[in-house]
Amino acid sequence: MARVSADNALAAYAAVPIPVMPAQNVAAASVDADEQGQEAGAVTISSGVALPNDPYVEKQWALAQIQMGELWGATTSGAGILVAVLDTGIDKGHEDLVGKVVAEVNFTDSPVAGDLYGHGTHIAGIIAAATNNGIGVAGIAPDVRLLNVKVADDNGVVWLSAVAQGIIWAVDNGAKIINMSLVIPTSSPALEQAIDYAWSRGVLLVAGAGNGIKSIPMYPAYYTEVIAVAAADVDGNLWSKSNYGDWVDVYAPGVEIYSTLPGNQYGYQSGTSMATAYVSAVAALALNTVTDTNGDGFVNDEVVALLTTLFAMPEYSYQ
Predict the structure, then answer these.
(1) Residue among 149, 156, 148, 153 at smallest CA distance from 111
(2) Active site (annotated) includes residue 87
(3) Yes or no: is domain 60-310 CATH 3.40.50.1370?
(4) What is the rounded distance in angstroms from the CA atom of residue 77 to the CA atom of residue 244?
């Protein structure tokens, strides 16, 4: 089976491993924000809501776009929710992620389950970085706990079979949400069965649409049971590099997102990967507030309906 790169559809067609996110989209915390094309001004999360004391929160422009103040005020910050991050691993010793990872597994040929590449740690920080702790960034759902499911190797390359195994492992270990910031150009019976297995047990699945500027469906995002996420820019428009199409369900902030990186570092990354993490994090907040309206015993379908309203796609067209 050919390997494909996580979150980059073009890599699959070229059959050449391409990093999960381009290196130029990553900047160390010491780099001046203006050099990365960032707005260095203060962020207003919402009127009347004080910013948390995390020193880099003013770099997190997307918190205002998703009206984070209102969400924090109306939820329990994801308490009791277990989110599985299927990615390149997580640096669980990061100062802003200590105590967040409660279990981990490695389905790659890497000798470690931790993150040597930097993508998975960035995703984990968006979702669950400690908030109002005077350190680093503010996570959207800081009270959730994480499952570190390593399905992409230390070069950011993922095996389709690893994703299928990772989904099943996450479900069997209590995940309520599975974040898949990766894309694969083809389906397989094993992957489809894993998706069905998760959905039938009430698990919410979220995946990136990819960064290929294509309308061609990508997996696992294309499955009916999975929320397919495109990326929005600072102005709330569809990001110019995002995949798109009527198979995409929602879009969320994904451009120059500031979050955690391995080794107690922080930096910017862009892509539908980051947008996927935003949707997963808000889903974690919603799981504690929605009710089972159709009597099927689960609320994953009700949360999907809510998310498609909160992150509704705009009208757009490509020439």
Answers:
(1) 153
(2) yes
(3) no
(4) 30
Q: Check pLDDT > 70 for residue 8.
A: no
Active site residue 273: yes
User: pLDDT by residue (tens digit) across 19-32?
Assistant: 333 222 222 221 12
The tokens for 185 are: 């150009």
Write down the catalytic residue from 96, 110, 119, 233.
119
DSSP for residue 111? S
What whole-number distance in Å separates Cα of residue 194 and Cα of residue 163? Answer: 9
Query: Which one of the listed residues 7, 54, 87, 249 is annotated catalytic?
Result: 87
**Which is catalytic among the residues 181, 242, 273, 280?**
273
pLDDT at 66: 85
User: What residues does each domain of the chain span?
Assistant: 60-310
